[in-house]
Each structure stands twice: as structure tokens, then as C-alpha cells.
Amino acid sequence: MHPMLKPALRRAWRGRGTVQFGVTPAHAVKVGPMDIATGCFLELLDGTRGMPLLYEEARTLDLNARQVDTLVMRLVDAGLIDDVRAGGAPADALRKRADVLERHRPDLASLSVVHPEPGGGMGRLAARRSMRVQVRGAGRVGAAVAAVLSGSGVGRVEVLDGGCAEPGDVAPGGLPASAVGERRDMAARQLVRRSAPGPAPRATAAAAGQGGGEPGLSLIVVAPRDGPSAYLPDPGTAEPWISSGTPHLYAGVIEATGFVGPLVLPGGTACAGCLDLRRRERDPQWPRMLAQWQSGRRSAVQACDLGLATAVAGLAAAHALAFLDGELPMSTGTRWEAALPLLDWRSERIGAHLDCRCGAAGHTEGVRTSGAGTAHDTMAG
Fold first, then answer.
1. Longest dimension (CA), the chain
2. Do 331 and 262 touch, CB atoms closer than 8 A?
3. Domain 129-349 is classified in which CATH homologous superfamily?
4. Beta-ladder partners of 29
5. Cα distances (Å, whole numbers) of residue 313 to 173, 233, 253, 353, 364
6. Predicted model pTM
7. What pLDDT digit, counting tens, does each position of 348-374 carry?
8. CATH topology of domain 3-84
């Protein structure tokens, strides 16, 4: 082990005997009691020394091996220590790509804070490179989501859409003005390639399965340019995803209202069919209105404010990345909405319906974790 204090967490002495790591309540930790010797020892935890060398240098501070082990393990338990050599073979391969890793330094710092175990951040960053995500839609929301996922290290990001890019599709972080007139799928493919920190890794037989080729989809993000298609999703469109067990996340903007979710875990959380059945129960006129919305005249211009679209894309991409990293974000079985001009984000829990063929009703979802609160304490010895 080559221990390193997580560099993203700022340190400050709260008094003569206590050090606080981190500023925000979500991740701050207080460590004490801390004397001058142990305070000086903290400066040695920079990842350049293994434990034998740390024992040797600690002796100059009148700290014995037992004291060093106790302090390091308490810092590990508090989620303050990273291991610069942990993460397994995929992480080792990523470390050899210095150019890629430099682009990912901020992402790695964030992951190391969110995932407390030594090497947890690097392991997850490396794992992203073997994942395949599909984004359905290359408008102001979908294209930006695809760019963020690619730039965040997801190895394969596919974008599906038809037609040619229009001036209204152009957005910072999304399709550029030069893409106007080009096929949307081609323009999005170029955007994903430009956003990536390096070329995508080759698919391995283990990742792709016995048949080789591309690995299975880790996630589908449904963010069509036509906002109603994601806000009022057609259960029939999602049936293949339910059958194959492919997680999918809805996001978009409709009538100056942005939304993210629900994230559907097939067989575990409510799906588009559950959403439709519950709406029909609440409103007997729903089927009549839905048929008109789906078959009637559509507005030539979507009410998709650029600032709102960018906020939705960022939130959707963050939720997608949290899921890919092994967490259940708050969009799991829940839709988050914010309408202009106040942008007050509100959530609506969507329960699985007993009559839906997805089979999610009665199942228990995974447990979400929350780091919110005040700085917690750990005793250093």
C-alpha cells in the first residue's frame, strides 16, 4: 500500500488537537486527538512512500510502527486515504495512459471523495472505459449528455437520431454551429469523439461475451429532441429494454419544464408501462388526451430554453454516471422536474403498478446512500 491523503479534501486545524478534512458537510471529517508529531506525519502521506519507508521516516518523529498502523487505518476507515497503486489491472492500464489520466484528474478527485475505500475512485474510473451507453436523441439535451459521458471516460457512447442538424440543435457543449446541415448521427459521433480524453479501448472477449464484438449496453439515456416522447414515454418502445434487462433513464425538456427520470431498472422499478397505467387511473380522460398529443399537429419549435436544457443535460449525465459507478441515484423510480422561471426542482415518486407486465410491483429496490449531514468525527489514537 502507498497511502495518500485524498488531495480533494482541504485540511484545517480546528484547534490544537483536531484537524478537519473537507469543507462541505457531505464529506467533511474531523480527526483527533492530533499532536504535532502526527500532524507532521500527515505530510508524508503523499503516495510516494510504501509502508516500510513510512515506518522508517516516522521514527524521526518518535512514532513507532504500531502508532503508524493505527493512524493510517483510522484514516482509511474515515475515508481519507487513497492508495495510488490500487484498482487492479484496468486501473494499471489507465495509469499508463498519462495523457488520458491528466484529463481525468478532476473526475478522479471527485470519485475518490464519493467512494471512500482506497483505490475506489481509480477503480471506477477505469471501469467506465469498458462500458457502453446509448443516448437516444441528439438535440440540445441528448447531444450534451453524450458529450459529458464521453468526456467522463465512458468507453463507448452511441447516439441515435435521424435527419439533419438544424440551427436550433446547436448548444454549448453539444452540437456546434458547423454541424448544421449534417446528419445528426454523424455530427453526434464526431462530438463524442472530440469529447473523449482518448481513443476508446478495444472490446475484450470478457466484456463482449463469447461472441466477441461490442459489450452489452450498460445504460440507455432517452433524451429525444421531441420532449413529449420522453415525458410521455410509449411503453411499447421500452418493451425490448425491459425484456433484455437494460436499465434506461428518461430526460428532456417539454414546455419550458425540464425533467430527469425515472431511471428504470427492469423488474425492479416502475417502467413506462407503470407510469401510463397510473396516469390512466388518476385521470379517466388521459387516454383521450394522450391520443391527441401523439397524433395531432406538433409545434414546429420546441420550448427548450438553452439554460434549462444545459441544466437538464448536466443532471441527467451526473445521474447516469452515478449509476454506472454502482450507485442508485435519486432518479431511480423517481422523476425530477423544474419549470422556468423559478427552477424549483421537485420530485415525483413513481410506484410500480401491479397490472404492468414488467413485474416490478412488489420488488424491493436497492438502498440509496446519502452523505448529507455534518462533519463526523474519528479518533486518531
1. 80
2. yes
3. NAD(P)-binding Rossmann-like Domain (3.40.50.720)
4. 21, 376
5. 10, 18, 10, 28, 29
6. 0.89
7. 999 999 999 998 987 655 444 444 444
8. Outer Surface Protein A; domain 3 (3.90.930)
